[in-house]
Structures are given as structure tokens and as C-alpha cells.
Amino acid sequence: MALLIRILAIMFALLLASFAAGLVVALAVLFPAFSDLDLGMADRGPFNAVVVFGAIFVSGFALIPALLLVIVSEGFGIRSFVFYAAAGAVAGFVIYWSFAAADFGALSVNGNARREAEIMTGAGIIAGIVYWAIAGRNAGSWRRNR
């Protein structure tokens, strides 16, 4: 029974982590457009749609790496805040570069791809922290209850 509850907690944490990462991606992509406009009371419908699309995008591409990280952290009982933040950062960066043209010369100061890599790395960090706050703090706890 404890294992079933743990699996449900992991699924819920992964869902909220993907929404948080989608929010980060949406805010980072839309921030330059929002910073120059003074629209007053703006319609939140399009923004909410972008956040949902960002969450679906992030969760779709990050599902396998996230599950691998969950299996490793549950198997070894890793509960460190730093582990989840660093693993999220690495996963976000690797996911971005696996789907982009992997040109590491573009990471120079004048490179275009640098901002996109930073956005995905930041989204990974936030997703890792959200996952840790919900489920990662108790990683491996289902084995102790036996």
C-alpha cells in the first residue's frame, strides 16, 4: 500500500513540476514582449494557453529523463535539494541540446542559442525543486515502512 501511495505522489509531483517548468518557459519566452508593452489589464487567456502548451511541451520531452532520475533517486534514497536542482539543470540542458542543432560555438556571448539553453536549464532547475518539495524529500521512504 505504501508503494502505491508513493507512486501516486511521484506522478502528482511530476505533473506539478512539468507545469512549473512550462510556466518558466512561457514567462521567459514572453518576457521581452511583456516588458515593452503597457497594456493595463491584459487578457490572461492567451497567457494561460501558452503556459499549458509549455507544460505539455516540457513534460513530453522530459518524461523519460525525469523517470530515470526518479528511479535513481528512489533506488538510492537520495533526498538532497541540490541533487534535484542539479539533475533538473542537466536534464533541461541535455533535452534542449538533443533536439537543437548541437553547436556549442553558439554558446558564446553573442550566440543566439545561449538564451534558449539558459531558459531550458532554468526550467529544469525549477522542475527539480518543485519535484523535491513534493516527493523528493521522502525518496526511498516506502522501503522503510515494510
What's the short story on this structure?
The protein has 5 helices and no strands.
Question: Could you characterize the architecture of this molecule?
Answer:
This protein has one domain. 77% of the residues lie in helices and 0% in strands. It is built from five helices and no strands. The radius of gyration is 17 Å and the shape is globular. 29% of the residues are buried. The model has no long low-confidence stretch (mean pLDDT 81).
Shape: globular
Q: Which spans of ≥5 residues are poorly predicted at pLDDT below 50? A: none
Q: State the helicity in percent bands.
A: over 70%
What is the N-to-C succession of helices and strands? HHHHH
Sheet bearing the most strands, described? none
Note the quaternary state here. single chain
Question: Strand portion, in percent?
Answer: under 5%
Q: Structural class of the helices, strands and pairings?
A: mainly alpha
List the domain count as a whole number.
Answer: 1
* Distance from first to last alpha carbon: 10 Å
Q: Counting H and I runs of at least 4 residues, what is the number of helices? A: 5
User: Taking Cα atoms only, what radius of gyration do you get, to the nearest Å?
Assistant: 17 Å
Give the tally of β-strands: 0
Mean pLDDT: 81
